[in-house]
Amino acid sequence: MNRRRTRIGVFTATRAEYGLLRPVLAAMEQSATIQPLLIVAGAHLSARHGATLAEIEADGRRPAARIPAPLAGNDRVSAAIDMAETLAGCARAYVELRLDAVLILGDRTEALAAAAAAVPLNLPILHLEGGHRTEGAVDDAIRHAITKLAALHFTAAEPYRRRLLQMGEAPERVFTVGSTGIDNLKTFGRSTPADASAVTGLDLPEGFLLVTFHPETLGVLSPADQIGAFLGGLASVEDRVILITLPNADAGSDDMRKAIAAFASERPDRVRVAESLGARGYIAALTACAAVVGNSSSGLMEAPAAGVPVVNVGDRQAGRLRTPGVLDCALKPGAVAEAIGRALSPGFQIMARSQPAMFGDGQAGRRIVEILDKTNFEGLARKPFVDLDVG
């Protein structure tokens, strides 16, 4: 008699998160022991944020459950209300789908809600990308909170695994597998500007910049002032095309979107704006551009692995591991302009291409599923706390 396949819910609420989950989903779909059930929430279902469920369906995947949230406001209270709706919707979906576990990636408010919903149901949480530090965003606290709720952990680098052990997680439950973002680099390969133009449908000539700037949710400046300072520095680039991908649905992102729209309207010949490029389009743009500029996590992980220079602005990603190909600069117009100029210099471009990979070899999705194939999920939600020997 065939053994029942393990039913694992895979939660996603944003375009970037889904892109990082693609390699895991692909490996799960090839497994004889696992049945992945996609649970779609948040911005995927919001027309205002690009309705990126279409990207999921274009991959041939249909959600097993949809968890809508209001996404009506653009402030901290609205974010908390959205979390409450997501938590309630996830709890109902987990029961209806008869899950054995739920897989959650990262550190966003929606991810915390999805994890919290699993706790009273005694449902094991499988967490990807724990152990990072991002000192400029509330994501840092959320990520560590999910770590303490999760039963199994899959980290991108060995220092992150050690950090989880320091937090009391059992060594046999924490696995260094690499980042699935590197899997996407390996899957899609390197693109030329012509390739990137064809994939994205945008005119992206040689030497273009790829730009993403999200709110620093723990920043001293307001989101409007943050984006004003950033765009003030970006305005120094007068001889290149700039491709800007819009920020996530964080508190304050509406102010940023308005400022970006105004910036682009003043430079219609040089600035392209995209709500979402999709996983393939984003990797094509990232590998074809002259530099990545902003404060996205992809600037600390995927871009260095592709040998692309990075200008990392402000404190949102402070605390992450980084290679010398990442230039950190203050969130001030002059500092941003100076860092972009340095990143585009021939010497820095050559140095960035020669940096060793820090986040794996492009096999993270396969490793995660190989571990899950061998996992006994019975009673897995009951986890130990391992005290460090500090005597």
Any chance you could write out the topology, listing elements then pairs?
Elements: E1 6-12, H1 15-29, E2 34-41, H2 53-58, E3 65-67, H3 76-96, E4 101-105, H4 109-118, E5 125-128, H5 139-149, E6 152-155, H6 158-166, E7 174-176, H7 180-188, H8 193-200, E8 209-212, H9 223-234, E9 242-245, H10 253-265, E10 271-274, H11 278-288, E11 291-294, H12 302-305, E12 310-313, E13 326-329, H13 333-343, H14 346-353, H15 364-373
Parallel strand pairs: 1-2, 1-4, 2-3, 4-5, 5-6, 6-7, 8-9, 8-11, 9-10, 11-12, 12-13
Helix pairs in contact: 1-7, 1-15, 3-4, 4-5, 8-11, 9-10, 9-13
Could you explain how this protein is built, in words?
With 391 residues, this protein is an alpha/beta fold. It folds into two domains: 6-177 and 363-373, Rossmann fold (3-Layer(aba) Sandwich), CATH 3.40.50.2000; 190-353, Rossmann fold. It contains 15 helices and 13 strands. The chain has helices at 15-29, 53-58, 76-96, 109-118, 139-149, 158-166, 180-188, 193-200, 223-234, 253-265, 278-288, 302-305, 333-343, 346-353, 364-373, and strands at residues 6-12, 34-41, 65-67, 101-105, 125-128, 152-155, 174-176, 209-212, 242-245, 271-274, 291-294, 310-313, 326-329. The protein has a seven-stranded parallel sheet, sandwiched between helices. The protein has a six-stranded parallel sheet with strand order 10-9-8-11-12-13, with helices on one face. Helix 1 (15-29) links the parallel strand 1 and strand 2 (34-41). Helix 1 packs across helix 15 (364-373) and helix 9 packs parallel to helix 10 (253-265). It is globular and about 60 Å long.
